[in-house]
Amino acid sequence: MSNVFSLKNKVAVITGGASGIGLAMAKRFISSGAKVVIGDLSDATKVAEQIGATFIKVDVSDEESVKKLFENTRAQLGPIDIVANNAGICPEFKTLNEATKNDYEFAFKVNTLGVAFGLKYAPRYMNDGGSIINTSSLSGKMGVFGLGAYCSSKFSAIGLTQTAAVELGDRNIRVNAICPASVNTAMAQENDQSQLEMEKIMIPLNRIAEPEEVAAVAHFLAADDCAFINGQAINVCGGMTAGIGPRL
Ligand code: NAD
């Protein structure tokens, strides 16, 4: 059973891999045997060196930059097996009444186009039978007060995931999305802390997720063992969507 969920010799690209959830994915994939490329807008040369990954700079909102990420990965490490389109941003907290065109455009460019470009170019450099994991959010399935721009971009990421699953099935490439509630990363720390406290009350496990707990789900989806899960958007929310608990 030692090969269960092994990623041995798989080539994986993780966008937004310089920190938070993406970095946790990179560490976990490497410890399971994968060769990992971290693609990020921030310089992750040092962190990549420390964990045994390769860093390639990318701006996921720039089509040419995304194409080069996958092109360069294949040139350096060979055909790609696993892609995590994970890079994302969260615009400032604003109600729909306050949100501007810029807020929507910023969220759309990174969170939606970032996934769309990944889904356009990665398959050209991938082995058949690979796995693509897009990081959406629980905000891709439900509205959140003050997060309209973010929610709309994350709903789109799920639509793209399902479309890609339909289009890439003939190549046996599975495409799934991960939908975390709040995760203990820089992004959550920048949020309104009183809103985080409210969220904890709504989560039966009474805490937010650690990035490693989201990376574990990505690992599950990445592995060949997970051969028949395709086109799904999987909640990683400590039971928040299950029902109303005792603290609410
Ligand atoms: P994070 O800020 O720690 O990591 C995001 C990474 O994406 C950073 O390394 C950043 O440099 C990179 N990035 C941002 N814009 C980029 C661009 N244009 N091109 C390339 N890289 C870019 O945050 P995180 O929490 O690890 O977020 C990872 C993903 O998880 C995001 O898509 C986010 O929306 C999603 N998510 C986060 C939470 C949460 O509470 N933290 C909850 C649900 C979903």
From TrEMBL:
Alphabetically ordered keywords of this record: Oxidoreductase
Keyword hit for Oxidoreductase: yes
InterPro entries: NAD(P)-bd_dom_sf (IPR036291), Sc_DH/Rdtase_CS (IPR020904), SDR_fam (IPR002347)
Domain of life: Bacteria
Family designation: Belongs to the short-chain dehydrogenases/reductases (SDR) family.
Name the record gives this protein: SDR family NAD(P)-dependent oxidoreductase
